[in-house]
Amino acid sequence: MTAMPKLLVTRRLPEPVEAHLAERYETTLNPGDTPLDRAALADAMTRYDAILPTITDRIDTDILTTRGACVKILANYGAGFEHIDLDAARAAGIAVTNTPDVLTDATAELAITLMLMAARRAGEGERELRRGDWTGWRPTHMIGRSIEGKTLGLVGFGRIAQATAKRARDGFGMTIRYYSRSRAPAKIEDALDARCADDLEALAAEADILSLHTPGGAATHHLIDAALIARMPRHAILVNTARGPVVDEQALAAALAEGRIAGAGLDVYEDEPRVHPLLAAQERAVLLPHLGSATIESRTAMGMRAADNLHAFFAGRALPDRVA
């Protein structure tokens, strides 16, 4: 009888996913859901055939080149893979996969949620109520803005941005503008009534809401900086459901403090789980704890997608979602 491959799952996953994996692999789970430190990750490299990591696991060159490593595949749980050194993985002969597509709708829903919360000042209102500071209804209390008919500027125009655009256009009659390194096919632009801006600066100047949907990495680090924020209208709102380092958080906090933009809705941060203290102090900032894909449907589908990649690898088939 052939021994089952040994698999480490670094964080707790939805119960159906863990049960599914346990049927196919000699699986080590993490019932305490505590992040693994570097020593634990290095040790795991020498004891397992496969690791199913998440974005909380920084797997760099030193980890990947651990003496005696026997891991053959990293089946990443998540669409992003900036926490894994892909070049080092390739050099070590370790396959890397991700879980695209299955979190599109959930993340688009959250982007719309952040737009509404920031525009209607819902975060401020809830905090005031919970503090016991609400003195009752009055005509000029905490007035926000409607997003109906406003211009939505999308930075990046992949699957999540397009799903966000559809909800914004169909649900709120928003005008769709976007900027991307590569222009979308005409049929997609036509379907969403979307127009590509000449450059990011032009998009920022036009948008009532600027929503970020770019990948991470050096090319997009602090893409939204003080200069770019200065081009936004004073009534504009910035939304980030993409990657934390895309935004210069100190510059954003300063702009909010000085009233140079009206608000922000963030689900991701540069130094998670730490939030920049100046940003956390801003009443006009809606701050969520990385909930983009946090529906039971999406989180389960992500786990099953990672499992599909593992199944394909150990069956000798082409990997559905190979990134390295």
Tell me what the structure shows:
- The protein has 2 domains: 115 residues, 3-Layer(aba) Sandwich (Rossmann fold); 184 residues, Rossmann fold.
- The protein is built from 13 helices and 12 strands.
- The chain is globular and about 70 Å long.
- The model has no long low-confidence stretch (mean pLDDT 97).
- GO terms for molecular function: oxidoreductase activity.
Topology:
Elements: E1 6-9, H1 15-24, E2 26-28, H2 38-45, E3 50-52, H3 61-64, E4 73-75, H4 86-92, E5 95-97, H5 104-119, H6 122-131, E6 151-155, H7 159-172, E7 175-179, H8 186-192, E8 194-196, H9 200-206, E9 209-212, H10 226-230, E10 237-240, H11 249-257, E11 263-266, H12 277-280, E12 285-287, H13 296-314
Parallel strand pairs: 1-2, 1-3, 3-4, 4-5, 6-7, 6-9, 7-8, 9-10, 10-11, 11-12
Helix pairs in contact: 1-13, 5-7
